[in-house]
Design goal:
Helix content of chain B: under 10%
Number of domains of chain A: 1
Oligomer: heterodimer
Largest sheet of chain B: 9 strands, mixed
Number of strands of chain B: 10
Order of helices and strands of chain A: HEHEEEEEEEEHEEE
Distance between the termini of chain B: 18 Å
Largest interface: A-B, 75 and 74 residues
Radius of gyration of chain A: 18 Å
Strand content of chain B: 25-35%
Number of strands of chain A: 12
CATH architecture of chain A: Sandwich
Number of helices of chain B: 1
Structural class of chain A: mainly beta
Shape of chain B: globular
CATH topology of chain B: Protocatechuate 3,4-Dioxygenase, subunit A
CATH superfamily of chain A: Aromatic compound dioxygenase
Distance between the termini of chain A: 30 Å
CATH architecture of chain B: Sandwich
Strand content of chain A: 15-25%
CATH superfamily of chain B: Aromatic compound dioxygenase
Shape of chain A: globular
Amino acid sequence: MTYSRVHPPLRWPAYRSTLRRAPSSPLVTLPPGLTEQTGPAGAALLGDHQVDPLDHDLTRQHPSEPLGERIIVHGQVRDAGGRPVPDSLVEIWQTNAAGRYPHHADQHPAPLDPNFTGVGRCLTDPAGNYRFVSVKPGAYPWRNHDNAWRPAHIHFSLFGRAFTQRLITQMYFPGDPLFDQDPIFNSVPAAARPALVSRFDLSQTVPEWALAYRFDIVLGDTPVEEEG
Amino acid sequence: MMLTPAQTIGPFFSHALPWPDGPHVVAADAPGAFWLRGRVLDGAGEPVPDALIESWQADPDGRLGGPFRGFGRCPTDPHGWWAIRTVKPGPVPGAGGRPQAPHLALSVFARGLLHRVVTRVYFADEPTANAADPVLSGLPEPARGTLVAGQTEDGYRFDIRLQGEHETVFFAV
């Protein structure tokens, strides 16, 4: 599926911040060379800060547990050809259960949670699977338009195996009533929007402990290695 | 398979994605280490204080991956400045194995960018290689010049103009 049928356009007036930041000129097609066909891989790109085994559990990063509805978020990372992407860094960040980021620029008058930073990372396993434990993020207001609210979402950052596969996206929750008025979600062509919505996954819930959502991710093609 | 669509990085990532040595592709005492610095500016010429720059490159011998990290990550400061400490990459073949001038691949993420934008950094002190580079030589002036980092006291400078006059060339990859 081509770029324009999946990814949002860079200029999307309903999302006002695009007006001064989206390039005016069309993108120039770059036949990828070896620089673009390779990429930072595994934990090595984190330098001295290797991924800690507990980094995937956002509920265990402080002395006590955060407030909110405990959730498991898991899925598989594959490339456009359906091949799993193993040993690849996945980074996430999100609000707390009240819809607040612990970020200096977040002025939403919702409480901070001293037991929740909302940042996680992990490496995909040999089958391309990842798994996080967190709490369900909250919706929050923003000033894009009158009475604007972002649907609850979790930011995802993925590397794949090549520079061309680098992706930052947002995962949403099924049935969110805020989808219709959110210009960021709706900047994606309608046929591709379901790919941003996780699905409730009863099979991975943990009885008497946590609900589960599945979010599978498909990156671009893995370049054929032609190292000489 | 349907690709997962991109979404903006948003304004609230600076507590999540940067790490202390993210801008250090190489150690301070690495032979040939320099600072690549620049500003990110919007269509009104205003600094973009909430962008994230990522770089990817070969080592000085033109090798990608392996023990050489090759990756840099730096958020912009309140004045739109970013900086990455690195070395000049060796020659890397382009599409069809054609030789290319030394270059870095750069991603720019920011609030207001629904998908990253991608560009390349070339070096002003490589005029012969730049003139023969298949990507650079395919661009008209003045667009070509937006991809060439100028020399400074401690390295090179590469400003990124997202929109408007002197807009940086961005690539679809």
